[in-house]
């Protein structure tokens, strides 16, 4: 899972002409769910969102307080485009979890955030909608976070233990290619592999 975490003075989500969510001081978090994400990835990202020390303390000491310490708000926005891989200049979203699976996964993440913190301080956009997100970044402070078990993090990929199918694979054996008809998790897929 990939998350872009921004410290904000305010942020809001609008769908059409209607504002569906807004926060004051806190964090705006864009979340990209991968086809390989599990509960372990979800737990890691929730823990980091709530515990990253991105705020000053009462004496103005920077990087000492988390969103929970300061009792600030969190606005989450599902953003499958964070799982993009470029093929030349064209984005490919086959690494994103399909919407039918991603929505309950995203809802579970929101519920975990609410159970771990104050539910009234956790807001979200509208899953699957075309949203206008307004962010007033504070600092600016932006953290790019990838869960350790995510294959999209090359630093972590080499440290991952091999699964049964990988450990039993002989050297030089061909790897299976990704299914070009796999879903991107979004309407209007602009994958370079998908047929119209």
TrEMBL record:
<feature type="compositionally biased region" description="Basic and acidic residues">
    <location>
        <begin position="167"/>
        <end position="178"/>
    </location>
</feature>
<dbReference type="GO" id="GO:0051500">
    <property type="term" value="F:D-tyrosyl-tRNA(Tyr) deacylase activity"/>
</dbReference>
<feature type="region of interest" description="Disordered">
    <location>
        <begin position="141"/>
        <end position="196"/>
    </location>
</feature>
<keyword id="KW-0378">Hydrolase</keyword>
<dbReference type="InterPro" id="IPR003732">
    <property type="entry name" value="Daa-tRNA_deacyls_DTD"/>
</dbReference>
<dbReference type="GO" id="GO:0000049">
    <property type="term" value="F:tRNA binding"/>
</dbReference>
<keyword id="KW-0963">Cytoplasm</keyword>
<keyword id="KW-0820">tRNA-binding</keyword>
<comment type="similarity">
    <text>Belongs to the DTD family.</text>
</comment>
<dbReference type="InterPro" id="IPR023509">
    <property type="entry name" value="DTD-like_sf"/>
</dbReference>
<dbReference type="GO" id="GO:0005737">
    <property type="term" value="C:cytoplasm"/>
</dbReference>
<keyword id="KW-0694">RNA-binding</keyword>
<feature type="compositionally biased region" description="Polar residues">
    <location>
        <begin position="141"/>
        <end position="153"/>
    </location>
</feature>
<protein>
    <recommendedName>
        <fullName>D-aminoacyl-tRNA deacylase</fullName>
        <ecNumber>3.1.1.96</ecNumber>
    </recommendedName>
</protein>
<dbReference type="Pfam" id="PF02580">
    <property type="entry name" value="Tyr_Deacylase"/>
</dbReference>
